[in-house]
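Working notes for the structural subgroup meeting. M.R. asked for a predicted model of this chain before we commit to crystallization trials. I am recording the input and output together here so anyone reviewing the notebook later can reproduce the run.

Input as submitted:
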Amino acid sequence: MQLNVRTNRNRSSATRVIPLKRARFWLICLFFFLWALAIGGRLFWLQIVRHKEFVERAEKQQLRTFEVAPRRGILYDRNLHELAMTVQADSFYAVPSEIDDKQRAAWVQSSAHALAAVVHTDPDDALTSEEQIEERLSNGHSFAWVARRVTPEVAARVKALPIKGIYSQKEFQRFYPDNEIAAQVLGYVGTDDNGLGGLEQKYEPQLHGAPGRMDTAMDARRKVLGSSEHEPEPGQNMVLTVDENIQFLAERALDHAMDKTHAESGTVVVQDVHTGQILALAIRPTFNPNMARKTTPGLLKNHAVSDVYEPGSVFKLVTYSAALEQHVTTPDDMIDCQGGQISLPGRIIHDDKGDHFGVITVHEALEHSSDVAAVKLAQKVGQEKFFEYIRSFGFGSRTGLELPGETRGLLQPLKRWGVTSYASIAIGQEVGVTPVQLVSMVSTIANGGTYLPPHVLMPAPAATGPHTEATLQPSPFKPGGELPNPLPQGAHRVLSEMTAAEMRKMMEGVVLYGTGRPAQLNGYSSGGKTGTAQKIDPATHTYSKSMHIASFAGIAPVNNPVISVAVVIDNPKGGSYYGTAVSAPVFAEVAQQVLEYLGVPHDIEVHAPRVKSQPEANIAEDDAHAQGDVNALYAAINDLPSDDPLRAEPAQASATTQAVAQTAKPSEKQPLNTATPMGAGGMQTASDRATPRPGSAPAQPATKAVLVSDARQLKVPSLLGLPVRKVIEQAAAAGLEVQISGSGTVREQAPAAGAMVAGGTLIVVRCSR
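Returned structure, recorded in C-alpha cell form:
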C-alpha cells in the first residue's frame, strides 16, 4: 500500500516538472524573439530609416568635396577676336587647423604680417590688408582665404615665404585683352566670377556654365585614399556684332571730342544699315573691367540704352519723313517760314536766332533746320498719323538690344497730348529718345525705309545651337549688303523706297549746304541732321540756358549707304554747344575712318587734306607752275629742326634710314600691330594696334609692309608713280598724313621711301600728268 502511494507521488511530481520546463523554454524563446525583434528594429531604424543621414555623416567624415569652377564662356567680336576671356591665376589660402593651438595666436600674427607685405599691392584693396588677413586667419578653422587671383610675380614671392599652412590653387580669372574697349557693352565679373554688368550680367547663366565636383576619400590621419571627379560644363561662347577695330575708331574719335568739349558724357553708335547690327558702341567716361574694384557706379552706366534725352532738331527727320510719305509735301514744294516764328495757342515757336526765312523750299527748310517749317509739316500730317510714324520708327518702345538697363524712352500716349504737343514733338521736344533708337531711325531711312531692330549679338547657328569651337566662324562686315530675307522678327516697313531716297538726298543737302557742313567727308558723300537740345535744370525743372545736348545722326555714303552713325555729347562746355560744332565733326572722323577701313569705294572726288598751320600760298595747286623743293615743303609743314636728317636730299635720307635699319637689332622691329598715332584720313584699328589683325577685316588696298620701331616710328612706303587716290589710301593704311601738290601721278615725295618717321607725320608728294 505504501509502495503504491509513493509511486503516485513520484508520478504527480514528474507531471508538475514537465510544464515548468516548457514554460522556461518558451520564456527563453520569447526573450530571444524580443531580443531579435529589438535588434532587427534597431537595424531597420539605423539602416533603413536613418540610412541617408548616416551616409551623409560618413561622407562628411571620410570625404572632402571640392567644387570645380567651370570655364566662363568667351566673348568674341565678329572677327573672332577675344574681347573677354578666362585665364588661370594663383590664389592662396590657409589651413589654421594644422597649427598647434598653443602656437596658433603667434602664427596668425606673424603670418598676416608677412603675407600682407607681399600681397597687399593695391592700397584700395582692403581684403589683402594685414588686419583683414589676420581676422580671417583667426576666425577660420580649417580654411581661410589669404589672397585671390594674384599676379605671377606676387605668387612667386608668396610661395617663397617659409610659412606653414599656406597653400595655393589655380582659379579662373576673367581677362579683357583690350582693357577699356567696349567696356560698357561687355560689363565685368566679380570676385566669385558672377557677371555684374553689360553682357556678362545679361547672359550670366549662359556664360557661367555648370560647376563640377571632386570627391576625395580621406582616412583618420587625413591621408588621401582616392578621388573621383565630375567635370564642369563650360559656359557658352558668344559672338558680338561689334567690330573691334571700328569700336576703337569710334572710341578714339569720342575721346577727341571729350578732350575738346569737356562734356559730362558722350556716346557714339555705329550701325550696319542693312542688318541693324551694332558695329561699335562707344561710351565716355568709361572704365577698365580688369580693374573693376576701382570702378564707380556712374562709369558702369551704358548711356546708349539707359539715357533718355530730348533729341532736338535731329527728330525733324521723323517729321519730314512722315510728311513725304503722307504726300502732303515734296522736297521742292515751297513753304512759308513766316520770318522765323509761328503763333500757336498759348505759345510762339521761333527759329534759331538770326534765321528769318520767308518762302523757301522744303529741302532748304530742313537744311537750315527751320522749326516753323517742321511745325507746319506736322500740322499737315495730323496728330494721329504723326504718332503712328513716331512709333513705327521705334520710339516709345524698347528696341530689344541684348544689353541690360534699356529704357523705352519717353513718348506720351496720343490721348495725353496737349494742344501744341504735336508742334513740340515735331522739333524734338516733349519726346525722349536713346542714342540706339536714334541710330536705328536713320538706318531705316538709309536702307530704303525698313526698320530693323538693333542687335549686339550674332545669332547662333540654328542647326548646332550655341556657339562652340567647332561652329565658330568669323563674320567680317562686308559693305554693300542687302536687307535680310526673310526679315527678322520685329522688322517692318516704315517708308516707301521713294520717300527714303528723297530723305537721303535732303540729308545730303543738310551736310552740303546747311547746318551739317562739318560732317562732310573726303571721297565719300554723307547725309545727316544736327540737333541741339536744352537740358532740364534739376533745380528749377525748366529748360536750362547753360546745359545742352549736342547730337548728330547721319549716314554714308548717301546713294549706297553702308553705315549709320549717331553722336550724342552731353553738356559740352567751353565754346559752342551746337550739334554743328560739337557732334558733326565726330561723325566725320568716325565715318571717314570706318569707310576707309572697310575699303568702301569712293563715290565723290577725293581732295587733298588742307594744312591749317600753313598759309595758302605755301601750297601750290597748279602743277603747271613752279612748285619749289618738295623736301623744303615737307620740312616746313612738319616743322622739323634744322639738323633733322629728313631735311636731306631723298637719296641721302634713304641711305641714312637704310643704315639705321641695318644696324638695328631684330628685336628692335615689331609688326604693325603696335600702337601708332593717327593721321588725317588714316586709321588706327584697335587698342595697341594700327591695322586689323591678319584675316580679320575686310579687304584693304594693297600696301607694302610698314614697320614700327621701339620709338613708335613708321617706315615710309614708296608712293612714286601712284595716282592720287592710291596715295591717300596707302598713307591712311600706314597711319600717316599726306599733302598732295598738283594732280596726276606722284613724281616726287618727301621723305623718301624707307625713311623712319613718327606716326602722324605729314608726307608731301608732288604730282604731275
